[in-house]
Amino acid sequence: QTPSAGSVGTSQLASSAVTNAKIASDAAIATTKLGAGAVLQVVHATSTTGIATTSTSYQDIVTVDITPSSTSNKIYIATSVQIRKDSSDVGNQSAGLRLLRDSTELTTISNYASWNNNVVTRTQETVGYNHLDSPSSTSQITFKLQGRAMVSGGQVSFNHDSSKCFITAMEIAG
Fold first, then answer.
1. How far is it, in rounded angstroms, from Cα 46 to Cα 142?
2. What is the rounded distance in angstroms from the CA atom of residue 173 to the CA atom of residue 108?
3. Closest by alpha carbon to 88, among 128, 66, 116?
4. Quick one: pLDDT at residue 116?
5. What is the pLDDT of residues 122-173, one digit of tens each?
6. Is the pTM of this model over 0.70?
7. Distance, CA of 83 to chain centre
8. Of 3, 40, 48, 162, whose CA is between 20 and 30 Å from 11?
């Protein structure tokens, strides 16, 4: 005899009655059922916009927005950017990088990216960085990767020659 729709409760199911194979591929699972450490959402942004600067003021390279679902969750940030020191006209020139949550600096990633003490005219490198943040918020958050020249007058470039940088934010259940 088949029970009527909605008449079977969880107390009537055997502990092994529901398996992964029986769950529809489009079924939604409540994030509260996933447990600590589960990835709840992923947002990703890329940019190929080249930035060449001699300024020692930080400029946005790439940004991403994420809205955490709980104040106890963490945000894992992964980022990568191409950097080039463009000339040897200023001694000890290098690029500086930092990561921000909204307007708060989370960390200085590097003050010596692409540094070469003028041994060659151009140096370039890829800088990758990962950070685990605990924002304690359910409001939208903007994470920014910013860069600058460390010595005024010498040029550094980010995303040179249409190279691509990225920033990925993952909400992790707390």
1. 14
2. 26
3. 116
4. 60
5. 777 889 999 999 999 999 999 999 999 888 877 889 998 889 999 999 999 9
6. yes
7. 18
8. 40
Task: Produce one character per residue of 33-61: b if its CB has 16 or more CB atoms within 10 Å, e if not.
Answer: eeeeeeeeeeeebebeeebebbeeebeeb
Contact 113, 124 (CB under 8 A): no
Helices (H) and strands (E) in the chain, counts: 0, 10
For residue 29, give Cα distances in angstroms to 14, 55, 160: 20, 49, 43
**Cα–Cα separations (whole angstroms), residue 114 to 7, 23, 84, 127:** 67, 51, 6, 9
Residues 121 and 102: their CA atoms lie apart, in Å, by 35
Instruction: Quote the distance between the C-alpha of residue 40 and its chain's center.
Output: 14
Tell me the per-residue pLDDT of 43-89, one tens digit each, with 9 for 90 and over.
Answer: 999 999 999 998 999 999 999 999 999 999 999 999 999 988 876 65
Beta-bridged to residue 145, according to DSSP, are 62, 99
- Nearest alpha carbon to residue 64 among 146, 128, 143, 140: 143
What's the token pair of residue 139? 């409001």
At 171, the amino acid letter reads E
Per-residue model confidence (pLDDT) at position 19: 80
